[in-house]
Amino acid sequence: MKKDLPENLVEDISIAVVLESETPESKVWNVYLINLKDTIIETVLITSKGYGLNNGNKVKTSTLRHKIEKLEAKSFAKVEAIDEEVFGLNNEYWLSYYVGKEIFDKKFIFLPESISESNFIRIPLVNKPGVMVGD
Questions:
Q1: What's the rounded Cα separation, in Å, for the pair 20 and 6?
Q2: Using the 8-state DSSP alphabet, how is residue 87 labeled?
Q3: CATH architecture of the domain covering 2-125
C-alpha cells in the first residue's frame, strides 16, 4: 500500500516528452525517463495514462505499464511513443524505482497544452528539444 512506503524524496529524475523528428507531414514524439543521479536506479515501474476534457466530454486513455530493469547513472531510457492527439489532456506518469533497498515513487503530470514549442528546452542527456517535468 502507498501509505506503507517511506516518504523518500525523488530528486534528479525527470520525465520528458521529446520531439524526435519532424517532416512537413508529421512529427515523431517519444517519452523518456531521465536519470540525472550519480547512481543506478533499478526495478523501474512506470504507468502512463491521459485524462481530461475533449470538446467538453470527459475522456480517458488506456493505462499503459512499463518496466525498466536498470537505468545507469546519468542516462536515459525511452518509455513510450506519444501521439500529439493527447497533448490536450493531462498526461500522467507514475514512477516507482529502487536505489539499493530503498523504494522511491513520484507522479509526473504534463498539463493540457503544456507540450508545445513555446515550452521547449534542450533535454539533458537526450540532447533534443522537448518538455520536461521533474528535476
A1: 36
A2: T
A3: Sandwich (2.60)
User: What is the C-alpha to C-alpha distance for residues 109 and 97, in angstroms, rounded to an integer?
Assistant: 17
DSSP 18-75: EEEEE-SS-EEEEEEEEE-SSS-EEEEEEEEEEEEEETTEEEEPPPEEEEEEEE-TTE
pLDDT of residue 55: 85
pLDDT < 50: residue spans in the chain? none
Query: What is the distance between the alpha carbons of residues 13 and 118, in angstroms, rounded to a whole number?
Result: 23
Spatial distance between the Cα atoms of 80 and 36, rounded to a whole number of angstroms: 19
Task: For CA atoms 68, 72, 74, 77, give the dihedral sign.
Answer: negative
This prediction's pTM: 0.92
List the Cα angle 78/82/83 in 5-degree steps.
160
Euclidean distance between CA atoms 13 and 74, whole angstroms: 10
Strand partners, 47: 65, 94
